Amino acid sequence: MSGTVLTTVVVPTVGRASLSRVLAAVRPRAGWSVADVVVVDDRPDDDGPDDDGDARPGLAVGDDVRVVRSYGRGPAGARNVGIRAARTPWVSFLDDDVEPELDWLAHLAADLAEAPPDVAGIQGRVVVPLTTERRPDDFARSTAGLATARWITADMTYRRAALLSAGGFDERFPRAYREDADLALRVQRNGARLVRGRRTVVHPVRAESDGISVRQQRGNADDRLMDALHGPQWRARADAPRGRISRHVAVTACAVAAGAGLLTRRRRVGTLALAAWAAGTTDLFLHRWLPGSRSAAETRRMAWTSAVIPVAATWHSAQGWWRHRRAAPWPEQRWLVLFDRDGTLVHDVPYNADPEKVDPVDGAAEALAVLRGGGAYVGVVTNQSGVGRGLLTHDEVDAVNARVDELLGPFDVWKVCPHAPDDGCDCRKPGPAMVRDACGELGVPEERCVVIGDIGADVDAARAAGATGILVPTAVTRPEEVTAAAFVRADLQSSVASVLAWMGQGEPR
């Protein structure tokens, strides 16, 4: 068997050299191919774009791979950008440091073909190879835990509809930690099932600095966010080990008590607390050191990090509890901003059939980036009466739209009315159908939708659908349209600023 697997492979990256191996593995093989491959470049702005403003230096991908940017938003935000770029029924996430096996594509095809309708996600199998020359060190054993972890995005495929229904990944998780478990719990809460598939990826153990185990304690803050969102029993549902946070807090308390006792000359209290701290630290040291190589370098590393880890874990846990103590379910405010195409996003070329004539309005790309960075969906609703008048073909309109998407996208939704004014359709603006359909496709209530356009039909369509319209006047805007509009802004930047303010306030004001 062979064919095209109807999934978009999304690979977030910060520019690791291993990315080339991932891309090589997902390219057509043995007659199988995927519908699309999207690399999400999550390097921050200070890495600088190349001269063309496209993929940044050092990110080597071929012409058959799309590159979109997420501007250093972290793994959750980068994957959300990938979801928005996808147009397939399934979305397959791979980390940029895994190695899919040779039969990965064929097994992915089988996984998706055999999935019943109530299965929303299928996890691949993860293999972590450990050296046989010596016993694995502490970090290698931690990495090996990925082989038994549930619903991790090292290799995880979801139905795109399930991702949209759940609101995507919660971007309050800033690291590659717990954001996948949180998403899985929300998808399952919606009544869907998650299962394991046949395909396999290898996750090598990367070389890390001595302090990696201390830096990993930042994940305790993410655990407190999980507590706030899913309650104290989330670990059982996510099959996540309890960890040693209670012991770390106790050991840290002993250290504080020892210092206080000695400073206040309460030597008995200080001595007992110091002994308890030493016992707790020794227990942690032995827990980490005995299964390892026990080399001199490993012993030194285990000794100093075992003294620091309890304090770091306690600090991050307390910080996370305070920051997330009132955390609301994700997404807190998911909005949709729909743009008119001609005269709003791109300069108006009447009945344009040539993609080369697409010219974005000044500031359009920056305004869209701000909205995406703020967590809003973005889409396009456009009247293309040239099709109904016989002046354009559907293919020509699609080609121009593809060029707009290439220059300014990815857009989460496109709605096009091809009818002439006299056809009597209900989709042509100022009718509400395109706005309502876009909201329905993304699961956004109309009251959280804003339509931005340059003529009265755009804001009238918004009003008819129960959404909010913003008029950005141009030379073709009539004075009476400006007078009738509830919200008028000078340009896209000020329009976007208003939308972001409304998102924070909960309603247009």
From TrEMBL:
Tell me one Pfam family matched here: Glycos_transf_2
Please give the family membership noted in the entry. Belongs to the GmhB family.
* CDD domains assigned: HAD_HisB-N (cd07503)
Localisation? Cytoplasm
Q: What is this protein called?
A: D,D-heptose 1,7-bisphosphate phosphatase
What lineage does the source organism belong to? Bacteria, Bacillati, Actinomycetota, Actinomycetes, Propionibacteriales
The record ties this protein, via PANTHER family, to:
D-GLYCERO-BETA-D-MANNO-HEPTOSE-1,7-BISPHOSPHATE 7-PHOSPHATASE (PTHR42891:SF1)
Tell me where in this chain the Glycosyltransferase 2-like domain is found: 8-140
Please give one Gene Ontology molecular function term for this protein. metal ion binding
Of the GO CC terms on this record, one is:
cytoplasm
Top-level taxon of the source organism = Bacteria
Q: Which InterPro entries match?
A: Glyco_trans_2-like, HAD-like_sf, HAD-SF_hydro_IIIA, HAD_sf, Heptose_bisP_phosphatase, Histidinol-phos, Nucleotide-diphossugar_trans
User: Which UniProt key words apply to this protein?
Assistant: Carbohydrate metabolism, Cytoplasm, Hydrolase, Metal-binding
Indicate whether Metal-binding appears among the record's keywords.
yes
State any GO BP term from the record.
Answer: carbohydrate metabolic process
Q: Gene3D superfamilies given for it?
A: HAD superfamily/HAD-like, Spore Coat Polysaccharide Biosynthesis Protein SpsA, Chain A
Report the principal subcellular site: cytoplasm
